[in-house]
Amino acid sequence: MGGHLSRRYLWDAEAEPDPLHMPSFPAQLGMPARRPRVMVASASQLSDARVPLEQRDFCGHHLVRLLRCQRDNFPVPWGCHALRHAWDSCQHEDYVMRMKEFERERRLRLRQQRLRKRHGDSGDSE
């Protein structure tokens, strides 16, 4: 989990992307058929369902249904198992997607460094 922190402070900090300022490369670079992610639940739906601010992400629509189910089936917590599983799965997929984006950004930065070094070396030898 803290691999990016150790790489950032101990090794090449220039190649390590800042998680707060991503992405710095075009989204279509290397993957022309890439589609942007969209929110399924609107901001008004999330606020009406009283979803906490830190949980308003791409899985908010699953959380809205889960909270509604928990409210409707209050004394029976196991009545919403399928919705809880759907929300947990969505959270995991979102985490994996963010880690892939981070790794893509890191590799593109390393590629950019290699290209600069190659063009810099070939320019000095001429």
Order of helices and strands: HHHH
Major pleated sheet: none
Evaluate the radius of gyration: 21 Å
Amino- and carboxy-terminal Cα gap? 45 Å
Tell me how many strands there are: 0
Low-pLDDT residue intervals, each spanning 5 or more residues: none
**Percent of residues in helical segments?**
55-70%
Number of helices: 4
- Mean pLDDT over the residues: 85
Task: Supply the helix-strand structural class.
Answer: mainly alpha
Overall body shape: elongated
Relative strand content: under 5%
What does this structure look like?
There is one protein chain. The protein contains 4 helices and no strands. The model has no long low-confidence stretch (mean pLDDT 85). The longest helix has 45 residues, at 81-125. It is an all-alpha fold and 126 residues long. 11% of the residues are buried. Helix 3 (60-72) runs antiparallel to helix 4.
Index terms:
mainly alpha, 57% helix
